[in-house]
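Dear colleague,

Thank you for sharing your sequence with our group. We've completed the structure prediction you requested, and as agreed, I am returning the results in plain text so they can be pasted directly into your records. Please verify that the sequence below matches your submission; if there's any discrepancy, let me know and we will rerun it promptly.
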Amino acid sequence: MTTTTEQAAQAAEPTTLLRFATAGSVDDGKSTLVGRLLHDSKSVLADQLEAVERASASRGQDAPDLALLTDGLRAEREQGITIDVAYRYFATPRRRFILADTPGHVQYTRNMVTGASTADLTVILVDARNGVVEQTRRHAAIAALLRVPHVVLAVNKMDLVDYAEPVFAAIAEEFTAYATELGVPEVTTVPISALVGDNVVEPSAHMDWYGGPTVLEHLETVRVDGIVDTLPARLPVQYVIRPQTAEHPDYRGYAGQIAAGSFRVGQEVTVLSSGRTTRISGIDLLGVPVESARAPQSVTLLLEDDLDISRGDLIAPSQDAPAAGQDVEATVCHVADRPLTEGHRVLLKHGTRTVKAVVKEIPSRLTLDDLSLHPRPGQLAANDIGRVVLRTAEPLPLDAYETSRTTGAFILIDPADGSTLTAGMAGDSFASAKQVTEAARADEDGWDF
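Please find the predicted structure tokens below.
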């Protein structure tokens, strides 16, 4: 029995934050699931619910269409589909949540990359009547490529298959086998009906054969590993602070958000790409000196030596500093309508730094049906996933994405109009896949870095 003192201590504990994304094929019920989560967890304001009830009544529906809580664009409501990523913020007594409801259409797969890129967990929905389809496999592959630590398979619309356990078991087995082949570290399967609320927030009275958690219970209790705290420390410099006032005549600080790990006063650090070393003489957090700081805090580092450091540089512990190089091999998801081709001149943005680069090679494109690699496709079209070899104009201190999802990620930008072309993940692709490596060829177009 929990005592009053224990209850008070639990109430005083800070709630953790879970970032998660939903994905799945068209009409699998993603927006309805999100709406049900918000509604049944009492996270919907009265005026929002009234607006949904009015909109549902105008469409001739007897009950509120909870999908309208997330499908906010007019085109989404008219077509009954999700087009853009919808972010929602809600909380329960046990945890705070940032939710990204991503589209199911193949043409909007790139939006799923955006929503899942920062997620700790991805909920992939499957229609119990259709089972695992191509888009299900595509979303599982993206979750694996993005190294999302936790994946939940929600087998939806169980009410339409009479809550049959064999139907759920067959789908769960097929998906788990596919996800394991991709290298997904953890898969949790839950049979649900988002429309009527079975196993979403409250346990279902129709599936006594299922003894696992509801979706919300799993979201509240899944471990949010502090892995970013255990990684080698990284601080991308965003701004150099030099007040040059009478009070601070010699103050020179390097401000930014710690991307991984922790720093402490007296620690030896290396500045990249110059490779110069020094020690931390002070750390300011919100204007107050502290002895140490960790990700994701925003801090200002003071160094013992006056070095040439500017925005875009990276400060890291000398013993764990990443190697800086100009040759980048990566797995990418192309998000632009214009294809990415060999010889394509781009801007590569990594952390706070942007450099010129050229696409030297596209060794392969991934076929999601059987996870085979189509060799030398020549280009990547919108929503394609493939391997690329890049050459940058300046050395970049890139970590492998499998080591750090923050400092191993980058984007390619069109230098003509500033639009995002491609999302990139340095190093290997799937955890179980072998690295596709080919040497970069000499550039014939003059961008020979």
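Summary note from our side: DSSP finds nine helices and 25 strands in the chain.

Kind regards,
the structure core
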